[in-house]
Design goal:
- InterPro entries: Aminopep_P_N, Creatin/AminoP/Spt16_N, Creatinase/aminopeptidase-like, Pept_M24, X-Pro_dipept-like.
- This is Aminopeptidase P N-terminal domain-containing protein.
- This protein is α+β, with helices and mostly antiparallel strands and 533 residues long.
- Helices cover 35% and strands 15% of the residues.
- It has 2 domains: 200 residues, Creatinase/prolidase N-terminal domain (Creatine Amidinohydrolase, Chain A, domain 1, 3-Layer(aba) Sandwich); 251 residues, Creatinase/methionine aminopeptidase superfamily (Creatine Amidinohydrolase, Alpha-Beta Complex).
- The strands form 6 sheets. The chain has a 6-stranded mixed sheet, with helices on both faces. The chain has a 3-stranded antiparallel sheet with strand order 9-12-13.
- Strand 12 and strand 13 form a beta hairpin.
């Protein structure tokens, strides 16, 4: 009886509640309320003026007030330009073209990366720009600095963001003079009209310049080059059909490089870029620290049955979370016998618990590259053959690093020859019956080292027989890749091991920028087992 009364009371209360809600929801119609937003004096946060790249006022989390680009003050760029012009001598002119946006397909573009020589001298990070430097001993600078940049454009700003524009090229980047890049072809003839005691140093944009991995740019035909050269000298003898004032600037420069007073800019600027300043070394150390931490995280993440692509994604994520802007190159994540392919980048296999994983990966931080390779066991423990082969490579690698001293006066070629001999002796100790030819032709077919900096393979024009000096940064990356060939001990078949560090030459000896990436066997196994977290 009591429970029935309670239920009836509850039902009655619910009905009354619903009735009240229904009555309260019936209201007289009202006019639409309009919020009184004003076109004037409406409070909103102040917004710094937009530029074509990060600026201390717009990105205080990236740049300090005295910096032109992250970590680099304008004085650093000023010093680089001055050193270049002093090295070229009086009567010299420099024309350096910046990078262009590259397309993956039709209108789908890759993320822009500035041409490194251009960026090294300017810090300007927009596409389709050109730098002109002219010797001017009577001025306080000793040279005249002109930039041709994309002009401000409302339509382009809607799609691509704001630009520094002509005014920003002067007020922010310190140019003596600036013009829209659309006028470059108009100005080029006067820059290229040089007297007998002058020399012009020019660089083409990356897509038309020669490199170690691409075919050299083919300049215009002799007839076309002749007409272009007449254009440079402001000659009116050419017929209108021969001259086209709308010729792309890189065609004009290509023709200019064929004159007796013109020289490529590559060598003189790379002579400067090879010697890293304290600011550059600090940037490269940060890039190496980020990549080293990411390598350690990947060792912990790797487990049987994970995919190589997952390790690649983990590495990229860890780098991004630590401030890296992008990867310096396509990562190599090679498990098992995939490591026998030096530049394996498919990264589409599944990890086997009995395999090693070779990861060659590094981030880019503020336009400086890192390049680190580590090899580790999926299981978290090296097997005996894996341990023996890893130790052989590690011993050779550490000895090569030890020889990276200013006092030693070594060259890249000498270091490579030493690495071949060291690997030969180490491999013989674990049962390989080899000649030096076996090492270089089959087991260790790549070169030991390359320069490192804003480009992954920095300063490619530098001779490998040149003495390495203070401020140079190189890779040290010996490796052994054992094919399924019975001339080699069967226990090592299918094993690929490479260990790579970044080494800076300092007056105090070799400084390993990538020292924080686990390398010793005890550290690698600890990282794999999560003991370094």
């Amino acid at each position: 009886m009591k429970s029935t009364a309670i239920r009836n009371a509850l039902r009655s209360g619910i009905k009354r509640s619903r009735s009240v809600q229904a009555r309260s929801s019936i209201r007289a119609p009202t006019t639409t309320q309009i919020r009184p937003y004003s076109l004037f004096n409406s409070p909103h946060p102040s917004k710094p003026p937009p530029y074509g790249q990060p600026h201390p006022t717009s990105h205080p989390h990236l740049l300090k007030p005295n910096e032109l680009t992250p970590g680099v003050p304008p004085e650093e760029y000023e010093q680089r330009r001055r050193k270049l012009m002093e090295s070229l001598g009086e009567g010299s002119k420099v024309i350096c073209m910046g990078g262009t946006v590259k397309l993956m397909s039709q209108s789908i573009f890759y993320r822009f990366r500035q041409a490194t020589d251009f960026y090294y001298l300017t810090g300007f990070d927009e596409p389709d720009a050109t730098l002109v430097l002219e010797s001017a001993p009577s001025t306080s600078r000793g040279y005249r600095y002109t930039l041709f940049v994309p002009p401000k454009d409302a339509h382009d700003a809607l799609w691509e963001g704001e630009r520094a524009g002509v005014e920003g090229a002067i007020t922010i980047f310190g140019a003596d003079e600036a013009h829209p890049n659309t006028s470059l072809s108009t100005y080029l003839p006067s820059y290229l009209n040089i007297s007998t005691n002058e020399t012009i140093y020019a660089s083409l944009p990356p897509k038309t310049s020669s490199s170690l991995s691409s075919q050299p740019f083919v300049p215009p035909s002799p007839r076309r080059r002749s007409s272009l050269l007449k254009l440079f000298s402001n000659s009116s003898s050419s017929s209108p059909s021969e001259l086209n004032p709308n010729d792309p600037p890189h065609l004009l420069l290509a023709a200019a490089l064929s004159t007796e007073h013109a020289k490529p800019l590559e060598r003189p600027i790379q002579q400067l870029r090879m010697i890293k300043s304290p600011i550059e070394l600090k940037m490269m150390k940060t890039a190496a620290d980020i990549s080293s931490a990411a390598h350690a995280k990947v060792m912990r993440f790797a487990e049987p049955h994970r995919k190589e692509r997952e390790l690649e994604a983990t590495f990229e994520y860890e780098c991004s979370m630590r401030g890296a802007g992008r990867q310096a190159y396509v990562p190599v994540v090679a498990s098992g016998a995939n490591a026998l392919v030096i530049h394996y980048t498919r990264n589409d296999c599944v990890l086997d618990p009995n395999d090693l994983v070779l990861i060659d990966a590094g981030c880019e931080y503020n336009m400086y590259c890192s390049d680190i390779t580590r090899t580790f066991p999926v299981s978290g423990k090296f097997s005996e053959p894996q341990r023996d082969l890893y130790t052989a490579v590690l011993n050779a690698q550490k000895e090569c690093v030890r020889r990276c001293t200013v006092e030693g006066g070594v060259t890249l070629s000498e270091l490579h020859r030493a690495s071949c001999g060291l690997l030969l002796e180490e491999l013989r100790q674990i049962g390989f019956k080899l000649t030096v030819g076996d090492v270089e032709r089959t087991l260790y077919p790549h070169f030991l080292s390359h320069h490192l900096g804003s480009d992954l393979h920095d300063c490619p024009t530098r001779d490998r027989s040149a003495t390495l000096v203070e401020g140079n940064v190189i890779s040290i990356e010996p490796g052994v890749y054992v094919p399924y060939d019975y001339k080699f001990p069967k226990a090592f078949h299918g094993l690929g091991i490479r260990i790579e560090d970044e080494v800076a030459f300092t007056k105090d000896g070799p400084m390993v920028l990538s020292a924080n990436a686990p390398k010793e066997i005890v550290d690698v196994e600890a990282a794999c087992q999560g003991l370094l977290d």
